[in-house]
Structure prediction request, 585 residues.
Amino acid sequence: MEFFLEAYLTKFVKETALILPAFDAKFDPEIRPADERFGDFQANGLLAYLGKKKENPRLWAQRLADLFAARDRLFDVSVAGPGFLNFSLKDTTLMQWLCKFHTASSYQGAYESIFSNRTVVIDYSSPNTAKRMHVGHLRSMVIGEALQRLIRFGGGHVIRDNHIGDWGTQFGILLMQIKASSYAFKENPEATIEALEHLYQVGVVKTKEEAAALDRARQELVKLQQGDAENVTIWERINRLSYQSFDRIYQRMNVAFDHVLGESFYRDKVEDVYGELKKYHLAVVDQGALVVFHAEHPRFSKQAFLVRKSDGASNYASTDLATIKYRVKEFHADDIVYVTDCRQCDHFEQLFLTAKKWFQAANYALPNLYHVYFGTILDAQGKAIKTREGKPIQLQALLNEAVERAYDLIRAKSPELSEVEKRKVAEVVGLGAIKYADLLQERTGNYRFEWDKMINFDGNTAPYLLYAIARIHAIFRKLNLMVYDLKFSTLDNVQAFSTATERALAKKLIAFPSALNLALKELKPHWLCHYLFDLAGTFSAFYNADRVAIEDVCLQQIRLLLCGATLSTLETGLHLLGLETLERM
Ligand code: ARG
Prediction:
């Protein structure tokens, strides 16, 4: 029995078709979930394919259906319309599938995706150092974390790389201001990231107002780039301090990386990039700068991709080019996934075009490059979200507020919990709500950040799903059963479900891999959110209609199996999205 029945069906229908003379290897049956009235899946691919070959679709659809029925035992098949095939899952198939796949561990390694056995580098979060993370840093972290978990679940060898911005022009200003200020940053072992942010802001104003200050900032940057010992020491300290503040958020959000190779790591690797781009005539010198044009592109034929500034300094583009080469040579990346907001869409398009040409010319293996972009977070009025003073909202403050609001919700709903439990539940619910509300949006659009919608037991929210999970745990507790120890193999020979609600739930459960497939194909976690919400609703309908505390042992086993499988799917699904789950709340 296979986990992903849709993929199994696709393979099997194609294999069957190839036995018949009208079909060849180019035939794709295009198996899709079907309108429920007609079946569970349908094959849409016959009509166009046979039409093109001037064959009778209805005739061959019938022959294919007959041959399929003779070879397969999992589906009922019928011909519909001018040449569609409908497939319905037999109850025995659903039952067998559930017996095999109803625990989190049974899913392990069962799901094959487009990333199976590939080395996938995922570049996410990647904030710039010298300031704390604010609300603008939320989405890359949340979406990137969900995707890395999904890709791993889909069989990919994932390498998480945090490409922090630790080599930018901000350091010139900071070094200048640190040296000018009476605040003894260098000597103060307790210097904080907040103090650094303040120094930076003062420095920015100063460089705008005084030409001399701007000049000093430039000189400090050059000194840093040339390896001046004092500046390098300060710079390292700034980065350490910054990373500690990032890490407090990562720990709270349950995010971790395999590597933190920031822009500075590539500073001695950019010469090689300049050399190769020139060697292969991909880059030209334009007013002292090194730039790449893409003649075939409507915009990038004129809009240059700047890879070395006219003063000789490297930039975001040069380090990103060096980074791709490094990831291919050192990590053997088959795929590289970048998670940033859409304002960087042009950068990545130019980067990918340039890398493609460069790797082709140099005969390097070119990985698949994916730019996973997302929109902006807006406030309830639809404007970019800010504090009342117009400043960016600090991420740590945002998380605190989420947890406080979740605490109020929990106190009202479950007053019987102890204070310690309420606090623990509030942390999981509050952080979960923030993550889930973000992932629920199709990532390419902007989304409105609305507390009342996300911290709510009604609607497609984390509290709703977490509560559904806790409720299923309670069912098992009441029956004195250990949910994770249940054995259901005896159900293998049960022939049919006894109610429509049981069957509807079973069908929803087997659709889990289809939802994962959608999410991975488009690198869009919202598909999984929608599936989990549907599943929780289908479960409610089942649980309201079909009692579990009953005498009939066999029937009870089937219903417990459905409860257990729903629980595992909801828990696994939320864990894949990066949320924690609870057994009671
Ligand atoms: N540091 C960048 C920023 O804050 C994001 C880096 C994304 N990754 C990359 N390889 N360019 O916008």
